[in-house]
Write a structure and sequence with these properties.
Blueprint: H1 3-27, H2 31-46, H3 71-80, H4 93-99, H5 109-130, H6 133-136, H7 153-158, H8 161-170, H9 188-197, H10 209-218, H11 231-234, H12 253-269, E1 286-298, E2 308-317, E3 322-323, E4 329-334, E5 341-351, H13 355-362, E6 370-378, H14 383-386, E7 397-405, E8 415-418
Parallel strand pairs: 1-8
Antiparallel strand pairs: 1-5, 2-3, 2-4, 2-6, 4-5, 6-7
Helix pairs in contact: 2-5, 4-5
The protein binds heme C (HEC) (2 copies).
Length: 424
């Protein structure tokens, strides 16, 4: 063996010893956890980019929120919130939070990349820190030194993507048939419009509400700074010239549902809900579903002309032998005075946890053939124009009529009511 080779062997052995020594140092606690904190956690803390949490949390919480200026402070803060498992560091809850998006196949690559880096950095740092008796034995953190989500938990929950999607389904998605098929991707009407105006008119995505929300959230159709000026509202209001004409008037159900979603979405995006009390009150406890069953009222009275007319449809409850107190379907729209006509597609409604809600979620929402009471309300006093969140009620009631219908779908197969048959 040449001297040179011998020498390199010696150096190699020496470095192995050094490495081993370092390992021992690390195990006995040591600068290494601190080093990892400086080199790998602090950059996450200082990065202007959001962490992987944004894949599911639109606001309210970020991994940065858990990192404190020093590694000792960060450790006790996490430890005393139960987010570090001292005996089985890999099971630490903070790692589970970071790992949450692992099983989401739709996750963007950027989240995947961030998540891997975050998991590796936190995993290593926690492993080393948990072995360090000095850190383990640090005194309990004061309440004000426990750092977590920057917003209260109610706000964190409200801003979760799955919650935002639920709200989207219950508002804009449920109202999509108010836009006929013009914007529903893949329909014959939409294909024709796409040819003329480009893919921008195909925003009710054929892959469903999640895809539509994803598209709209990234599009120019929602104006986060001035939500009420969003094209999603100003186009159908025809405040900005619209190829489909005037489809909303301020105060109608479609406008209100779109507005409620867009305003809420904008506040979430701007992270401007400071506390639980500032969150919007739940609109109601009902789930809304779009349908292509149309109701038509002919021979409308002269003084109803160009007013908003609302119908509530109540189902006959055979078991109880009475009409259901809450409507199963509703719709509203301006009366076409000159044509003495009102017609629109129905929005179906049912309580959140009902059997019907399950059925409508899993299949096509529709009304069963049977006996129904149609109650009609007309905004003769222009209450909606004055206070857009007014609700038409007893004082606006103009009459009701019992009908039989199988509620066939489509513009050409409407269930018809003659206004002259309405009784108070
Ligand atoms: C793949 C989606 C997803 C990702 C990514 C994700 N979360 Fe969550 N998170 C959820 C869901 C869903 C819940 C509510 C269900 C639950 O409590 O288990 C939740 C709940 C929470 C809660 C508890 C709130 C409560 O309701 O008590 C906190 C805190 C939290 N996440 C923080 C984070 C942090 C920090 C990250 C990033 C490091 C993150 N999450 C990444 C989906 C995710
Ligand atoms: C009869 C067909 C038709 C109906 C019904 C219709 N639209 Fe449109 N809409 C169009 C056409 C055509 C365009 C493209 C020209 C334009 O920008 O005005 C358009 C454009 C839009 C745009 C702009 C899209 C973009 O990316 O530039 C929005 C937003 C919109 N409509 C919203 C609605 C809403 C909301 C409804 C229902 C409440 C509705 N439209 C009903 C035909 C329709």
């Amino acid at each position: 063996m040449s001297r040179l080779v011998q020498r390199s062997f010696a150096i190699a052995a020496w470095s192995v010893m050094l490495l081993a020594n370092k390992e021992v140092q690390a195990q006995s606690g040591s600068p290494d956890a601190g080093e990892i904190f400086q080199k790998r956690l602090i950059p996450i803390f200082k990065s202007p980019n959001p962490s992987s949490c944004v894949q599911c949390h639109l606001a309210g919480v970020d991994l940065k929120n858990y990192i404190r200026p020093s590694h000792e402070q960060t450790f006790v803060s996490l430890r005393d919130q139960g987010l570090i498992d001292l005996d089985d560091p890999e099971k630490s809850k903070i790692l589970q939070l970071i790992g949450m998006g692992k099983n989401d196949p739709g996750a963007a690559l950027i989240h995947e990349k961030n998540r891997k880096a975050e998991l590796a950095a936190f995993g290593e740092w926690i492993r080393l820190s948990a072995q360090d008796p000095k850190l383990r034995n640090l005194p309990k953190a004061k309440a004000e030194d426990l750092k977590g989500p920057e917003r209260p938990i109610e706000v964190v929950r409200h801003a979760r993507k799955d919650r935002v999607l639920e709200s989207f389904e219950n508002t804009i998605w449920a109202m999509r048939f108010r836009c006929m098929s013009c914007h529903i991707e893949g329909t014959a009407e939409n294909r024709e419009l796409v040819e003329k105006h480009g893919p921008r008119v195909a925003w009710f995505k054929k892959d469903g509400p999640a895809a539509a929300l994803e598209y709209l959230a990234a599009s120019r159709l929602i104006d986060v700074e001035r939500p009420e000026k969003s094209l999603l509202l100003t186009k159908p209001l025809n405040e900005v010239e619209h190829g489909g004409g005037k489809k909303f008037i301020k105060g109608d159900q479609g406008y209100r549902a779109f507005l409620a979603f867009v305003e809420d979405f904008a506040r979430i995006k701007k992270n401007s809900y400071p506390d639980a009390a500032s969150l919007p009150a739940a609109r109601d406890t009902l789930l809304h579903f779009g349908s292509e069953s149309w109701l038509k009222i002919s021979n409308t009275l002269p003084d109803w002309g160009d007013r908003i007319l609302q119908v509530n449809v109540h189902a006959w409850n055979a078991n109880a032998a009475r009409w259901d107190a809450s409507p199963i379907a509703t719709s509203d729209r301006q009366v076409f005075g000159k044509g003495k006509l009102w017609q629109h597609s129905l929005t179906l409604m049912t309580p959140k946890d009902s059997e019907l809600a399950k059925a409508w979620k899993n299949g096509k929402p529709s009304l069963a053939q049977g006996k129904y009471m149609v109650k009609v309300y007309v905004d003769l006093r222009d209450r909606l124009g004055k206070t857009p969140d007014a609700v038409l009620g007893k004082g606006d009631f103009v009459g009701q009529v019992e009908i039989q219908s199988a509620w066939p779908e489509g513009y050409g197969r409407m269930t018809a009511v003659d206004a002259r048959k309405l009784r108070k």
